[in-house]
Amino acid sequence: MPFIGAIRVARRAGILVDLGFCCLAALGLSRIRSPHIAAAVCVLAMGVVYFEAFPLRLSASPLSMVCAEPNYAFARSQGIRTFGEQIESGEPHPVRTMHRVQAAACGIRTSTGQSGITPPLIAAVDDALASLPDRAAHAWLWDAGIHWVMLRGSPVWRRTRVQRLGGHVQRVLEAPSGTFVELARPEIRSLEPPATIEGERVTGLRADCAAPVICPSLVDGDDRTRWSSEHAQTGTETITLRFLDQPVRGLQWNARGFGAELPRGLRLEYVGANGAYQRWGTFAAISPAVLGRRPGRSSIAFSLPTITTGTIRITQIGRTNSIPLSATEIEVIRAR
Ligand SMILES: [Ca+2]
């Protein structure tokens, strides 16, 4: 059918239901003998549709009603800038149009009517909110200008959540039906490493990781084959790369189209001359915003001090609520 692809799945079902009701209404009308009664029924039915759609404003999205007042009025009275205000004011902000993020900021999980597809940056912000008090999530939110989080839910749940946030909290304010939490300045800043690193790639890589069956897809030289942790990032994912001993000076992680699945944080180690693992570099809070701010970007690269090794261990050290870790290729860059 023309244009059907542009309509969300949920709405397509709604259209089918509406068509069914139309048929039933036509059948019912055809059985009414009196044209006056039939006309009255038609007017009544149209009136119901009109009042449902316009004067009563039975919105499909409860967010504006749930989130907007009275908590936002409270926020304004306290001089707190909220997501909602940033969205409404049209400021150039990465979460400007993100009703789903607004929902997360309000501590409620709700459907926005989307067909199960969440744009990557929305997913990343939502996930960062849900992953607090993770260090990487905290640094990322702060650097994205998100310094206040509104928690909704029962008072007991809100108290528990505030306690769980622990040292990440600067200030807590009780609003009429929510708790505003000001995040403390994080100890670390989120990092936006460059997308690529120039240089010759190390060949003959072998990879060991948590899912060995598909782990070779990390280093098969094909940017279309992907490895995924297939579970949320827990801060313990480990990948070991082995190759012939040689001097190397960096690493590139490609996630091709899945920027939200880039690692939240990385610890890089290598096996040195003494045969033991040594620290190469730690990147505590890698910003997932690299994708949202620069659409299409979904790789990160690290330039590091030159070392001579044949074994590199990569440990993902951040945490997500639901987003897995994935890569299409991990490349090691030779030193000249
Ligand atoms: Ca691959």
Keywords:
336 residues, alpha+beta, Jelly Rolls, 3 domains, 6-stranded antiparallel β-sheet, 3-stranded antiparallel β-sheet, binds calcium ion
Brief sketch in words of this structure:
The chain is an alpha+beta fold. Bound molecules: calcium ion. The site of calcium ion has 6 residues, from loops.
CATH architecture of the largest domain: Sandwich
The structure class reads alpha+beta
Distance from N terminus to C terminus (CA atoms, Å) equals 58 Å
Q: Outline, from the CA principal axes?
A: flat
What pattern of helices and strands is seen along the backbone? HHHHHHHHEHEEEEEEEHEEE
Strand element count: 11
Give the overall average pLDDT: 77
Helix content: 25-40%
The percentage of residues in β strands lies in 25-35%
Total domain modules: 3
Specify the number of helices: 10
Largest sheet, strands/sense/barrel: 6 strands, antiparallel
CATH class of the largest domain: Mainly Beta
